[in-house]
Amino acid sequence: MNNKVCLDKCPLLAGLPGTAREFLAQKAQCQPFTQGDTIYPSGSSLERLSIIAKGQVRICSSNFAGREATLAILDSGTWFGDTVFCPGTPRVFGARAHTDCVIVDIPGDLLREKMKQHPDAYPIALEQISRRLWTVMSIIQDDVLRSTEARIARRLFFMAQMHNSEHESSPSSFRLTKELLANTMGMTRQGVHRVLKNIESQGLIECSYGRISVPDLSRLGAYIEKLD
């Protein structure tokens, strides 16, 4: 996938005219990463928008003991680097290659300049960022108010949404180990396993080695509403 095709598929840039995306594609840098590579650490102040051209990226943070907390696992076509619109702001979470991947980076100053030249693009970008903010606030609410099963089900729903570019009734599959999910939720692997088995027994998810599939996202969503 060349840079222009990658940018054309990015929903955050959908409001920009083709000529603006063409200009940004010419200035963008394409870089491959091997699974486990750090794309950027938490606390960095990079001013760029990153788009996944191929593979998957894990948005995560680690403490001094090396324990990792994962916010999301993003698939190809997804963008990250929200602070591109807030120059100098440190990134709370870092990014790591979840699988071998290829990242297209757009310099922040050039993106902001093009947005100023085409202000009609702002409403679309604002909607995309607002959805991200709503998701993060929902995760915070989950951690404070909801049961363990509701928290895990909603986190799986969020990850499936990030991987599903089609209708909500279409299947979604993503690479996720029980250990990684346990670290994300602040739980033991055994505790996560029990909850996943219960959700799987109802046909809402399918667990295989290192991978979780959601056959019907709308059914999982309905199940979560009952838990709430």
Rg (CA only):
18 Å
Can you count the helices? 8
Order of helices and strands: HHEEEEEEEEHHHEHHEEH
**Beta-strand residue fraction:** 15-25%
Helix content: 40-55%
What does this structure look like?
The chain is α+β, with helices and mostly antiparallel strands. It is built from 8 helices and 11 strands. It has helices spanning 3-8, 18-27, 108-117, 122-145, 148-163, 178-185, 189-201, 217-227; strands spanning 29-33, 38-40, 48-54, 57-62, 68-74, 79-80, 94-97, 101-107, 172-175, 206-208, 211-214. The strands form 3 sheets. A 4-stranded antiparallel sheet has the order 1-8-3-6. The radius of gyration is 18 Å and the shape is globular. The termini are far apart. The model has no long low-confidence stretch (mean pLDDT 87).
Question: Which key features would you list for this structure?
Answer:
228 residues, alpha+beta, four-stranded antiparallel β-sheet, 8 helices, globular
Give the gist of this structure.
By secondary structure, the chain is an alpha+beta fold. The chain has helices at 3-8, 18-27, 108-117, 122-145, 148-163, 178-185, 189-201, 217-227, and strands at 29-33, 38-40, 48-54, 57-62, 68-74, 79-80, 94-97, 101-107, 172-175, 206-208, 211-214.
